[in-house]
Amino acid sequence: MTIEKAMFGAGCFWGVETTFRNIGGVTTAAVGYAGGTTDNPTYQDVCSSRTGHAEVVEVEFDSDAVSYKELLDVFWANHDPTTLNRQGPDAGTQYRSVIFTYSPEQKAAAEASKAEMDSRGRFRRPIVTQIEPAPKFHRAEEYHQRYLEKRGLAHCAI
Question: How far apart are CA 158 and CA 156, in angstroms?
């Protein structure tokens, strides 16, 4: 077993967490905040749009069971990467589409995957997803962890 980390921002983190948690080979998924300027931000801080953080999911996965490329495929399939700072009704920089990478290999794979998505023409508008080195992950408050699962929901209702 080879455990690696991946971090994705794809809108509201509740649904993103559930999606990744249900993939075979994913050992853990936690919601949190990354990419901002405030140490130890709270949900209220992040929602103010003044900290620069994105709502993200940090995924730990067994790369012998699921590849990073497969996780990227799930990322692209489960949100609209063409809307800047918005997913569905949620608007603000905290909902931006972003891939935070932990290694040069992840960066190369993310960039290749983004280029592939662009070349396929799957999206009518240009992809605005940011690809950046992984910053510090700030775990969200406990009530956000497994939020949908705790409420008996399979997905967010939009």
Answer: 6
